[in-house]
Predict the structure.
Amino acid sequence: MAGFDINRLDDAIHGRLRLGIMAYLMDAEAADFNELKNVLEATQGNLSVHLRKLEEAGYVEIVKSFQGRKPLTRAHITSAGRTAFARYLDALAQLVERR
């Protein structure tokens, strides 16, 4: 498999849950925490850790607010996140094409 550069796979995205978050947000633009938790079948703690990693990478923005008296946490994909995800998919496509 000469020519494939494993370093093109973004470590911030590469992982089942982070990949799921990014794929969901690419379509939805934004989602609240409970929506992501349910769709991805994740625990609260696990989802929180992975959202933080994506936020630290600049791929997701977390906005905390209140809906009435209830806290509401929403994740929004950033333009850097959209670009990184497109590059990630391109790297995977190149890997598959070489098979």
